[in-house]
Amino acid sequence: MLDSDYGTRIVSDLDPDLAAAFSRASLGPIANPYAARHIPAQIHAAGLELDSDVGSSAFVFSSEMLLRTQVLSRDADDAVESGGLTREVADAAVRAVHDAAERGLAFVAITVFGFVARKPEA
Questions:
Q1: Fewer CB within 10 A of the terminal residue: the chain, N end or C end?
Q2: Taking a C-beta distance cutoff of 8 angstroms, is the pair 25, 77 a contact?
Q3: End-to-end C-alpha distance for the chain, whole angstroms
Q4: Where residue 101 falls among pLDDT bands split at 50, 70, 90?
Q5: CB neighbourhood size of 67 (10 A)
Q6: Distance CA 87, CA 7 (A)
Q7: Higher pLDDT, 30 or 54
Q8: For residue 117, what pLDDT band results from cuts at 50, 70 and 90?
Q9: DSSP labels, the chain
């Protein structure tokens, strides 16, 4: 099973507190932003055994993707609509990351985790 955990999101070129607020405030539209952290308990509740070797990898948004898509703008809109950030702060955050992306220096990533579950041996 693979799933992501938006609680592990990293956004470069922002003050860490602002990056955390930006990420937290934009989680509303995501159906289950912390899905991956619940998988071990769900595996156990299903009567399966969780393999001890849990894998992880990062989904990294390239500078090109950050510039060509509206992902940051949508996140900013969600952050403003949720009341987590003011429009001015959200727009400044998007500009800061876009400026870094234009120089090829932005780093935005979300961790994806991989789990193996097995039926218990009888």
A1: C
A2: no
A3: 23
A4: very high
A5: 13
A6: 22
A7: 54
A8: very high
A9: -EEEEEEEEEETTS-HHHHHHHHHHT-TTSS-TTHHHHHHHHHHHTTPEEPS--EEEEEEEPHHHHHHSSHHHHHHHHHHHTTSS-HHHHHHHHHHHHHHHHTT---EEEEEEE--EEPPP-
Extract the tokens encoding 66. 């950050």
The tokens describing 61, both together, are 């948004």
| Cα gap 16→24, rounded to integer Å | 12
Q: Is 58 exposed, middle or buried (0-12, 13-18, 19+ CB in 10 A)?
A: middle
User: Which is it for the CA torsion 36, 8, 84, 100, positive or negative?
Assistant: negative
Sign of CA dihedral 75, 83, 4, 93: positive
**Residue recorded with tokens 């097995």:** 118
Taking each helix axis from N to C terminus, what angle separates 71-81 and 87-102, rounded to the nearest 10 degrees?
160
Tokens representing residue 112 in the block: 């994806």
Q: Which two tokens stand for residue 93?
A: 């955050």
